[in-house]
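[[Sequence with tokens]]
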Amino acid sequence: MAAVVYNRRYDIGFLGLERLHPFDSRKYGRAWRELNRLVGRDLRRYHIPVDRGVSDEELLLAHSPEYLARMSQSKNIVAALEIPSLRRAPAFLLRWNVLRPMRWAARGTVLAAQAAISCGAAVNLSGGYHHAKRDAGEGFCIFSDIAVAIRQLRAEGRIKSGQRIAYVDLDAHQGNGVCHQFRDDRDVFIFDMHNPSIYPCRDVEARQRIDCDLPLPVDCGGREYLGLLRKHLPGFLDSISRSGTVALGIFNAGTDVIQGDPLGAIALSAEDILERDLYTFGEFRKRRIPMVMLTSGGYTRESYRLIAASVCELLRQDGTVSG
């Protein structure tokens, strides 16, 4: 049965941050409320609450001590967030109001990955910070929740030595941080459909690490996008399943592929995104690969509705809720 991981501390509200950056930093709470409207009281039966934020010790699974120390200074936090107007904000306020929610979201990804292995599928209504590298944060990504989750599950023995992870990134932006995090880890297989004309287009090293690299044309429409996904995703999953056990699938389900998103430059409709998500869920399920979905990027006010629609349908198809 699918699970939904969420905590009200995911939302970031600080000095009108939502007016300083196109990212809707409160979309997590909005998505939760929309899910409650769509699903009703059944949702809470399958809700996994987040108990705390990730600790520094857990973050060291993905980041260097020097990097975490740098994140105590305003200038370094602001550089990673890419919001220069916050450069005069006190560091303690940035850590409390911005980094603290990200710590809770990273913990949510760990819990969602644990739940996926236990019950087959789970969604974290935040996370997917796929630009965070070991020694650098960028693109509004400070902590690599994906790397923390994989390495923590390995340390716990939930993912055993030699077992594989299928990472499928369908955010409009290439997940360069994940590529750097697992540059030398050949048990993590990376599938990435992205717009190569936008950030982080100059990170050539990251693209070289992708196992199945599918660049998209600017303003790629739903028919072409879904055609590419259907053509390549089954073969990617089959190729790594045939020669080894896939212990976990991670689906980075960014909604910045919606037409009109100011940063994505892809032209999918809401119906296309729902079809994308359900198709990806189905491909993991066919192969009995436990799957965790992360919400990643999305820079329109409709992002939370797109997330809620996909999660609601996943719960219905999984038999978690009726309707």
